[in-house]
Design goal:
The chain is of the alpha+beta class and about 200 residues long. The chain has 2 domains: about 5-115, no CATH class; about 155-200. It contains 6 helices and 6 strands, in the order αβααββαβββαα. Helix 2 runs antiparallel to helix 4.
């Protein structure tokens, strides 16, 4: 990850990335966030949700709410290593609770659908099958010869569905623009946009 993005996350979530500036003998976090820029928003959202959960729960414990006191304080979640492995996000940590474990697991699963380089998340995201395996979009695939999208098994069906979805969205937008022009009674604008004065 670019140093500026790495610094941003470490500054925004200092409790999570408390080991970021330790030596390589003390923590793997010394090497930083060893993932592409495309996973920045995934990590940002994950860290926000984790720290919010911890702070909210532990605040309830301090206020003496019975249910929170009974559960006890959640140990601070601390990142031990963040990296890409076998084309997916790996977030090693200590602390947290079962809910946080679920959040991390979910983010790791989502990473297989997000281009590690640009963050694109659509039907064109996949991975190569040879060499260093990486999740990417077609544009950022290192070797397009062995690149396979995540939807290859049903590629034709899904590609057709996406084509129809995009066509429906385009038609709905055009219809909304026509309705807007009609409501305004602006024949000139309608003519300029659609070249059909007779329908006004």
């Amino acid at each position: 990850m670019h140093q500026l993005l790495d610094d941003y996350l470490c500054k925004k979530y200092p409790k999570i990335f408390v080991e970021r500036n330790l030596s390589p003998q003390e923590s793997c976090m010394h090497w930083g966030l060893a993932v592409g820029n495309g996973w920045f928003f995934l990590l940002n959202t994950l860290c926000h949700d984790i720290q919010s959960h911890i702070d909210s729960h532990n605040d309830c414990v301090r206020k003496g709410y019975d249910w929170a006191v009974k559960a006890g304080e959640i140990p601070q979640f601390v990142a031990l290593q963040v990296k890409e492995k076998f084309s997916g996000l790996r977030f090693y940590y200590k602390g947290g609770d079962e809910k946080i474990a679920g959040m991390v697991s979910h983010a790791e699963d989502l990473s297989y659908s997000i281009c590690e380089e640009c963050g694109q998340m659509n039907e064109e995201v996949g991975r190569n099958t040879k060499g260093w395996i990486q999740t990417s979009c077609k544009r950022h695939a290192r070797n397009s010869i062995d690149f396979r999208t995540n939807v290859n098994a049903r590629k034709d069906e899904l590609a057709e569905i996406w084509r129809k979805v995009r066509q429906d969205e385009k038609e709905a937008a055009e219809k909304a623009e026509k309705e807007f022009a009609k409501e305004r009674g602006d024949k000139n604008a309608y003519q300029l946009m659609f070249g059909d004065e007779t329908k006004v």
